[in-house]
Each structure stands twice: as structure tokens, then as C-alpha cells.
Amino acid sequence: MKYLIFVLLTLIILPSAKSDKKYYDELYRPQYHFSPEKNWLFEPNGFVYYKSEYHLFYHNISVSDKIFSDQLGHAVSKDLVHWKHLPIAFTPDEKGKSLISSPPTAGSAVIDSMNLSGLQQKDEKPMLIFYSDNKGNQNLAYSNDKGVTWTKYDKNPLITVSEGDARDPKVFYHIQSEKWILALFQSSGDVTKTPGISFYNSSDLLHWKFSSHLEGFGECPDIFEAALEGSTPEKKWVVLSGEGNYMIGSFDGLSFKSETAMLKLDSGKNFYAAQSLSNSPDGKVIQIAWMRGGEFPDMTFNGQMTFPTELSLRTTKKGIVLCRKPIENISSLYDKEIKRKDKNFIPGLKGSLVGGMKGDAVFIKAVFLPKTSDSFGFIIRTGKKSEGTDIKYDTAKKILEVNGIKMPLEPIDGKIEMELLIDRSSIEIFANHGELGISTCFSPVKGEDDLLLYTQGGELYLESLEAYNLKTAWSNK
User: pTM of this prediction?
Assistant: First the structure.
């Protein structure tokens, strides 16, 4: 069960959390990653665009006297960077229970632009959220005022599972078959005896028919169509599960046929339950995920999302892979910057200070040629009281390592390319133009904000580097 590892932490940490008078400026408060105002943030429960606004729904869980209250948090944004918190959308379960006996589950949100459900009442198109209850049934809630107020569908459940575990419905519209599709994790039940993703289809978003089952995938499924980079307009389908495992192939509205082996989107310990944006305004595939497992000591909140990324497919020597890059709107936060080009670095006892760049919110883009270097990388959040966190590339083993996470990383044309997103409590690394990635959380020492670039054992050639201090995304709060 996905939430068991958090139960003891929830019961111990939150009741003793300390208040901080500096709202959204606490020691470990992310400055440009989404986090809840208070309580625990769990996985996305809907990520949808409607009328110039991006809506993010998520489980916001408070704990009192060993009883939890599972609420659906709601926030909106115009640019996926600056978020505004809205009132709680609704509570999936009417009565609070222990996290062990009744864990929250992921869900998804869509816009019924054709009013196929018949739930539209006035001018606004219905916004629908699909969610699971603790019995494995799939339910619906809807809004006719852009997500301000919600009504639970009076004929719930939409799908009843008589046995086994069923949860985390992901709903999307399949243009080719002109059907709505619901992808559902099922461990076993009426239609399957093996864990995986079950596909259902519907013409009205209310009545669902089982079509197929895809074995070998875990909970929190997502499925979307992405374009291959290049001049050709070819697209392929991607099926992804919560832990970041994915396959690429085709989907005809009934079943998925894989064209690749199982691949890994993120090698970090804090990437989970990723969800793609529904109703994307420009056709781009935008993704956000829960940074599960992060620690936020003495904070009045716990949890954050990854920074939104744009996804694409790329043909490599090893085949087609799914690639990620931070959305371009991150540039709206750029503050102090340094740029370096065509520089040779030699080993030094203290490393090379990156032009005086320091801070707790930094974005770095760099391209390296290892030359004779045995290892090189960045040491972040270092200073007089702390050795900081080492992001190290071993040139002989071809391994990138941070926080105990080791990821194989082969040079491309002799080069290693990295983009780093550093926030007060997280690090996101996108390597080789997003072909590989690591998402990890950390708790650096207060006030230790230096940034070092170093090489060991030999010379390192820096082809290019851009580093930006980032302004807080919450300055208008």
C-alpha cells in the first residue's frame, strides 16, 4: 500500500510542527515548486486546463488524534509557475479514518466540452473529477462554475469492482475512436487476475465498458500521446505508472500494444504519481508529479510537486525514449545570472566558485566535455558549516550520483549535458537534454548557500554554462 511508509511520520511530525510567521518563506518552503499552504500534500488528483487557467487538484491531508481528513486541495495558475490557492474542492470520503485502513487514491480531471454527460447547467462547461473510494469503486464529482463548487454525482459509483484492489482512474478523450477512456489500476477482480491497467471506454462519461487489461504496471497510471521530435508529425502513445515505469507503443481506444521494453522516466527516490495535463491549450504534453518521501522538519506543511515539464519522444541509439524539460515559463523567475563559455577547469582543493553564484533557488544549464577529469560536478548549498550536497559524475563508470542515487549516464558525442533545478528542499536533474532524470529531496543547512563547480583528477572543459538565481513564485501572496 503506497501510503504506509508515511503513516508514522504523519502521526509524529505534523502535530509537533512549528508555526512560522513568514508565510511561504519558511526554511524548507519551496520557492517555485508547488506546495500546500498547510497539512500534507499527496499525489495529483486532477491536472486540467480551462479558460486560460491551469487547475491542480491534490490530496491535502490533515491529521488529528490519529484520525485523518482527506480533502481535495485546489489551486489555479495562469502560467504553471505562479499559483493561487483556492478553497478545498470537496472531501472524497465523508468520515475520517486511519491512513492504513483508508488511504487516499489518485484521480483525474477533465472538461466535458461537448456536454456528453448532460451535466452542464449554465454557460460553463462541466469540469469533472473521477476518484476512487476505499472499496475500489470509481466515482464522479462535477462543477459548473470553473471548479469553485462541486457536486457528487447522485448515481455513483460509475464502476463497481466486486473483488481485489482498483483505484487511480485516469480519464482522457481518444480522438481516433471518439470515445472517452478510463485507465484504472487493478490488482485483481472481475476482469483480471493479475495487477496492471484496465481500460474502459464510454460515450457519455457516465456509463463505462471494459475493453482490455495491460499487465505489468503499477498504480497511478497515466496514458497520453506524444510527438516524436523532428520534422515528421509522427506520434506515439505512452503508458506510465506511478513509480515512473513506462512503455511506448500504440493505442486504438481499446487496447495498448507496446513497441518497447519497460523504461524508467526518473531514477530518483522522490518522483511518483506523475500526471499529464488534460485539455492542454497548445497540444503540448505537460507533466507534474508528487515528490513523494521528502522531509520538511518543523514545517507546518509536508510535500511538494515537481516543477512542470514538457514531454516529447526522441529517437536515440537505444531506441525511442520519453524526454522531459522544464517548461519555458521558468524564465519569468530569472534574477541574477552568470554565463560562461569555453572554459578549462583544473583540479583544486576548494573547487571553482561559479562566478559568485549562490542561493537557495537556482536554475543551471551546463554542457561539459570530461577530457582528463576522473570526476566532476556541482556541490550545492555548501558553506562554513556544511559540506553541501554533491552532484557528481564519474567519468570512468559513467555514473551520475546525488544523495545516494546512482544513474547510468552515457556521454553523447563526448559531452554530458545537465539542467539542474535547485529549490529549498529539492533537486531535479535533467540529463542529456531530458533523456534521463533524477528527482530528490534534501534538507540543507540554513544559510549555507554557496555553489561550487569542481573537477578531480584532471582537466574539465566547460562548453557552456548558464546559471540563474530564481525569484520566489509566491511574491504576490
Answer: 0.94
